[in-house]
Structure formats: structure tokens, C-alpha cells
Amino acid sequence: MAAIFARRCNVYVSTFCIFAACTFIGFVKCELQLTGISPVGKSGGKSSIDDGVVSITADNLVSLRFYGAGFSRDTRISFTTTAGKFKTKCEADRTKPVTFKENGLREYKGEAEVSLPATSDGQVYYVCLQFSNGSDWMHQGGASDTLLQIKATIESSLPLWLKIVFILILMCLSGLFSGLNLGLMALDPTELKIVMNCGNTSEQGYAKSIEPLRRKGNYLLCTLLLGNVLVNTSFTILLDGIIGSGVAAVLGSTAGIVIFGEIIPQSLCSRHGLAVGARTIWITKFFMLVTFPVSYPISRVLDWILGAEIGTVYDRRQLQEMLKVTAEFNDLEGDEMTIISGVLNYKSKTVEEVMTKLEDCYLLDVLSILDFRTIAHIMQSGHSRIPVYDGERHNIVGLLLVKDLAFIDTDDCTPLRTVIKFYNHRVQRVFDDVHLDAMLEEFKKGHSHLAVVQRVNNEGDGDPFYEAIGIVTLEDILEEIIQSEIVDETDIYLDNKSGKVIPGRKGLMKNLSLFSEEQDKPKISPQLQLAILQYLATAVDAFSEDIISFNVLKRLINQPHVVQEIKLQDEDNINHKYLYKKDAAGEFFTLIIQGRVEVTIGQEELTFEEGPFTCFGARALVPSLSFSSTNVKALGQYIPDYSVRVVTDLMFLKIPKGMYKQAVRATLMEREQGADGIDGALPGMGLMNFPALARINHVNGSGIQSDHVYLETTC
Description:
Layout: H1 2-24, E1 33-39, E2 47-50, E3 53-57, E4 62-69, E5 76-80, E6 86-89, E7 98-99, E8 109-114, E9 125-130, E10 137-140, E11 149-153, H2 160-183, H3 189-198, H4 201-215, H5 217-243, H6 247-279, H7 281-290, H8 292-306, H9 316-325, H10 334-345, H11 351-354, E12 356-357, E13 364-365, E14 369-370, H12 372-381, E15 385-390, E16 392-401, E17 414-415, H13 416-423, E18 428-431, H14 436-444, E19 450-457, E20 465-473, H15 474-482, E21 492-494, E22 501-503, H16 508-519, H17 526-539, H18 550-557, E23 563-566, E24 578-580, E25 588-594, E26 597-601, E27 606-610, E28 615-616, H19 618-621, E29 642-646, E30 650-656, H20 657-673, H21 675-681, H22 707-713
């Protein structure tokens, strides 16, 4: 009503000005002219003011009041949708003319009942007036003046309450489509399958009901988008029919769609899209059927262009990072995360990264003797598989399993080479760039759980050759997978990453020492003992039958600490790797039983190697009668002019000068008193109990001046 009142005021002012001007200049009758239109108050709601323009219900008689000048009972009114200037002819596209009602007709205003067809969006009617029947129709203008325009709109057939109900329903559907678009389409096929297999009972039920529709991804997407656009458009039209098409309609529709159709449903479905989608699945299927003629062809085109939908796929690094990012929200423990990380990473690592370097490995020389000490050392190492080398440590020639020692008698002193040849375990070799997954497959085949890591050495001028650089075991790969050291009941183990020796179970070495106290000395077989006795008695003059009897010589060899061993890998013996040093006193005799030594002689430092049954230091026992020799001092101290260095594990016979003199004295007593007397006088051959020794005046020697020449002629 306020808009109608304001419009009438404007019309009254314009009409009054025109009428006053006509009267002032003396005209009796003003020229026919329209100044404004307004609805009559008793129009029954069929006319209104919409954005300054008179709006009437189409195809209904509506009373309108016209203002202007020169109106009469002969004046006729017609309407056209064609815009024109004032006083131009108006002949085309006019509606059926009407006349003013005689009741209340004045020269400056009049009422008429008008019925107009509906206009399209943005189209209005303009007024054409005819002064009398037969005169020209004159256009009244109004292209830029809303006071002279009329809109004819179609009256809605729905009542107001039904429109409100439809608006609420459309608002809910708009929110549903918007939320499902985010909730369902965000669930890619891969994630949906995971939920179907690993979710709880309710989630599995939701996923199973949604999965058939989600498989048709583009069809579902087109349906949701078309449905969303359809309900939003219908909502806007219905809202416009209630509150009009002004600013209020724009603000109302925008607020309704954004808040209730986008923000609230999307925030809800982003967290509970699976449940919402499953509970409203019948609505989605209904709209898929309704929009099938449009959405299905579009979806087929999209399938052809974009291809099949695969879903989100993570590689190893992405999967590992996803686990780290979601660590505080999932139920994985710390060690489980560590193991998963190790499983995802181990394929990218090579055996060189996890192997134990060869210099840190426990190896055995193929020349070793399997006596009590060697086997005890093997047991104390805690390893079940031990590589065996020949000469150089990088020359791996065999593999010893601890179970191979089950039937080995330590008293037999079995050579390790014999055991290696008998069992002939395959030595598996791999290159340093082999990945851990391939190495694990090799171990799973059952050939071995230990492999020698090698590489091609092409340094220098010679031909390239394979060089062993480390050892890799199945345990190393498992430790890399679980990202932790596997500690068993062994005494010690070597961390192949830090290189540190870490203690394990205590007490095994102590327990073994209880048994090794009496048997720690090296053992030689009876056959080898007989060979040593015969060699000393026949090849070395100092031990001939004339000087030492065979019975005393046998007891001499069986004395403690006469047969000795040197293990190069034993750090306790590293200072004993020289048997003799040049110009250093050495008051003992040595016979090599097993192993090899390096001899350096004379000023020229000539070097050569010697093996079993080579003797040294015979002059220390029986010096020449002429004390002019350069290597025998006045007091009888023996100074060798050569050096003897141990190059392999060594077993040798070591007889000190004092013990030798006691053996000579025991021989003299034996010959004087008889064998029974000497046996009773010397329990365990306690030769050190003799208070005095007879001087040896005559030695059946060869008169050699140089000790190393003595080696060649006498030994």
C-alpha cells in the first residue's frame, strides 16, 4: 500500500502540473496525454506495484486508474509490447482497446477494466491512446518511465501454504544432493572396498548398499548434479512467487541455498557421508531413474573420455607417510609401526647395506685342527654357520655348520679341511647390489641361510676378480624388516650397523673353562706323536738315542706346555706371533707340527716360508764346544741371527733349554738305575726336581758355525 500511495503522489503531481499549464496559457481543452498508471485499491489482490511497475494478473479483468490530460468518454485505451516515443503512431501489436468508465471520469483521470495476456520475463506493456474513434493511435512513450509501464504475470495456482511446504522440501533435497555429492564421490572405489572388508558391522552394511551405485561413478555424479540444479532452480522460482523478484528475493534465495543447501549438509556429509548415503539410497535411485535420459548418456561420454575410475592408489613412500601422519589417530602400536615401515622399505635396500663386513666376521682357517680349544672357541662364538677361508680371509672356500661337529672327537684332532670336504656344504655367493627381497627369496629356497657378499675387484693392472667383502644372513634381513636386533642365547653378537660387540647370555665361557683346564693344551694324535718322536730321534742330533732315551723323550713331549698353539684370530696371542726375533735371546728349541711360518735370515733379509717338521733353535740346546760362535755368548745364551714369524694358525713343539738338560739327566739316571728306578723317582717326569745337572762334555755334533746352516744339515 505504501508503494501505491507513493506512486499516486507522483502521478498527482505530474497531472496537476500539466493541467495547470493548460489552464494558464488559456486553452479550453488540453491535448490528450498519459502521465501515469496506478492500480485501484479494490482490485482483489490482482494488481500490485513491483519495482515501480504496475503488475497485474494475466488474463484477468483488473481495474486500473489512468492519469493525464484530455480524457473523455470517447477516449480509447490499448496496450503494446513495442516501445516507442511519445506521440508516435501505434498501429502494430496492439491489444483489444477499452474505454473509460463513465463513473468518476474526469479530464485528468479515469478508470478502466483491463485484461492482458501474460508477458515473458523482462517484457512490459506500453499504453497507446486514441482521442476518438477514427483518429490515430498515439504511443504514450514510457520506455524509461516506469509510471507508464504494465506487467502481466500468471497467477500461481498453488496456495501459499503449499508453496512453503514445497520450498522446505526443495531445500532439503538441495542439501541432500549437495551433501551426497561430497560424501559419496569422496569415497573412491578403493576406500569403499576397504570399508566393506575391514569396517565394523554397520559400516560394512552401509558400504555394501552404496558400492553398486558408486561403481557407476560418472552416472551417479551426473544424477546428483542435475538433481541439485533442478531443485535449486525450482526453489528460486517458488520463492520469487512469494516475495517477488526484488532484492529480498535475491538475498533470501542466496541465504537459503548457501546455508541450508551447501554449508550445513556438506559439513555433515563430509564426516557421515557413508551413513547418510546408505539411508537415503532410495532417493538417489529414484533421481537416477528420473534423470536417466540426460545423465546416463553424459556419463557414458565421460567414461569414454576419462576411462575407468581406479581410485586412490598409494606407493610405498606415500603409504608409509600416510601411516606416520595418522599415527596419533590409528590404533597401531609403536613396534607395529616400526615393523610396517621396515617391510615397506626393505625392498629398496641392498645386501651391502645390511651385511657384516668380512673383517668383523668370525671365520675359520681351513688349516685349523678341531681340538677341544677350537671347538670351544666355535661354541663360544655363538654362530651356527661359520665360513671357512683358505690363505686370505676374502678367499671363502667352505662352510662349517655347528651340527657337523656333533660326532667329532676332540682327542682325534680332526683337520677342519677333512670335515669341510666330507659335508661339502654349498657356499652361496651374491653380489653386493642384490636387493633384500631377492635375497630373501633365495634364502626361502632352503639352500642356505648364509651367503657371501662379493664384488668385482678391477683395481690394478691385473684381470678383474671376485672379492668377498662380507657376510649376509637370513637374520640380517629379518632384523631389517622388524627394525630391531634379534638377540638369542649366544654369548655375544656383533651389531652389523654400529660394529659394536654387544654381550648376550653370560656364563658359557666360564662353564667351558671348567672342562678346558686339563684339556686346554693342544692335542696330537698317537700317529702324529710317533712321527714326532721318530723324527727327533733320527733327524735331530740333540735328541738322538745316545743323548736322550726314547722313553724319556716320549715323556718330555707329553709334558705340559711343550706342545703349544697360536691362533692368529685370538687377540690374546697377537704378541706371540714371532717365535724368534733376530738378535733377541731365545733359549728354547722349536719344531713346527702344523701351520706355516715365515723365516727372515741374514743381513740380506732373505725371506722364505717353512711348514711342518721344520725345527729351529737346536744350537740353544747343544752349543758348539768352540765358544767362538757369534750367536753363543760366553754364558751360553743363544742369540739367533734370523726371525721366525707366524703366518697361519700354528701348532709347534717348544722345549726350553732347562727342560732339555733335565731330560738328559733323567736319561743318565735311567741307565744307571734302570727303567723302574727312574719311573719311581720321576712321577709325571718331574725333571725340575733334580738339584744338579751333569755337564755335557761331549756332543756328537757336526761342528756347524752358523745356526741357519745347522737347520739345513742337522734338522
